[in-house]
Amino acid sequence: MSDKQLKKLVFLESLFIGVLSIICALVFGLIFSKPFLLIVSRAFSINNLNMYFPIKSIIVTIIVFTLLFTISIPFVMITIKNKTIIELLNGSKKPKNEPKTSIFLSILTVVLLGIGYVVPFLNINSGNLTYVLVACIIFGTYFFFSQTLVWVLKKLKNNKNLYMNKTNLLWISNLVYKIKDNSRLLFLMTTLLSITLVSIATLSSLVSIQLDEQRAAYPFVINYQSADGNPQEKDRLELIEKTLTEDGFIYDKTSFNSLRVKDNGGYLVSQSEFNQVGQKLNLDNVSVTDDEVVIVPRYTDSSYMSSLNELKTLQIGKINLKAKGLASGKIFPAGYKTYIISDYLFKKLSNNPEYEKVTSFGYNFNGWEKSIEEGYNFNEHIKNTSKNNFEKGILKETYTDLRYYYKVSIDITNTMNFMGIFMSIVFFIGSCSFLYFRFYTDLIYDKEKYKNLSKLGLSYKELKKVLTIEISSMFYIPYLVAFFNATISIIIFSKIKGFSLGLKGLSTSCIILVIYSIYFVILKNKYIKEIAKIIPGYLD
């Protein structure tokens, strides 16, 4: 066969595979899109996922994959350019050289993974070292498969008592070559599995974390603020209480006074008012003198809290006060600038026109998360019928409903969940397909090898044992490393974001492990059966 004929053969083969792959993908995608959207809408509570014909997506898919296959063809031709037909047909039949390893790189692996795995558990701000830790784990993982693991297996070979014991000779020697030959594949598998575990663990915990964060950010489920002289105050309160009663909620009502600082939008609360409301919300009491102020943090992230702790003085309007510290919690919704001052100073400023009197009404009740839609609709009603005029600076009332903001957050979270879990499934299938392809390409060689070994006395039981150890090593070593990598990544992520995913996030890895194990059992049994059926007497 001439070079021209060979190139033509490769081109036609790649073209046929590419076109067939694109057509099959589009056909099956369209067939299963409706049930897929139905499952997604119910699983993630996402509405309006209607069926449509995605012309733009089809065009983009055709263009991208056509470019992909077009680019891959020259690489294939370059690979086979300097090889003869006999070499291509023989493939992996040629004897392999003993894999070489470096003791330096093996030690470096331990150092890199040690840094990546240990530092996040130390009492230091590992968030500042994020990129360093990620780099250590990535390079450490690669060297683990290409150097350290092979080095360990070679040491097992040097232990004659272990190596020469029954079938150990077979699986140890096989793994030395398989691990070395597939080090990049195993590294890529580990990376994809790590991404899968981190994504699913993080996203599966977001809903519960979202609920806790929203509840902490809004001390009252409903918070209605009415400026002095608001004509709608009475009607609003009657409507709120009537609606809650009709919906079957038993509510606890709290009211307190505050002063709105007109020039910066902050709120002043007297010490006695804050402590009285704080008792209901399980907050610590505060105590201030006439020249002091306690700041109520608007948010909870560590950098913001640190900046508040560094304040020595604070100017509110035209008065300067000494910053005494931070309150243990808030009585206004998140985002409100709130300052606690002495009762005397509060009374003094009440007569100052620069400070507007505001009365706040808070409602708490159990089971609010079951009335998300009602809260959303009620919030929209208040917004549409309000007499506020922001252009003229008229702010007569503000209404904050935890249920409204929770619904918005949940909608965003569900969308993120869908996108993240969908991508995780793609990565998971990708990692599994790599192994399937690898074993499929090794099958012809292994058939011949084990057929010859059977003539030397290898039994079916011993064949199953050897292949089980080999396949399980190729399966579970990457998963184990990926689990450790994912755990460290989640710890780093939790420290940066200031919340803990806890065991609930990582528990999802057990679900992935079960699916992964089912795939392992199916592939292992199929692989063993394919080899055993060509050997006389094994399946009789």
UniProtKB/TrEMBL annotation:
Domain ABC3 transporter permease C-terminal per the UniProt entry, residue ranges? 1-83
Q: How does it sit in the membrane?
A: Multi-pass membrane protein
Q: Where in the cell is it found?
A: Cell membrane
TM helices/strands, residue ranges: 9-32, 52-80, 101-119, 131-153, 185-207, 418-437, 474-493, 505-523
One cellular component term (GO) for this entry is: plasma membrane
Listed InterPro entries: ABC-4_Integral_Memb_Prot, ABC3_permease_C
Instruction: Specify the protein name.
Output: ABC transporter permease protein YxdM
**Keywords linked to the UniProt accession:** Cell membrane, Membrane, Transmembrane, Transmembrane helix
Originating organism: bioreactor metagenome
- Pfam families, per the entry: FtsX
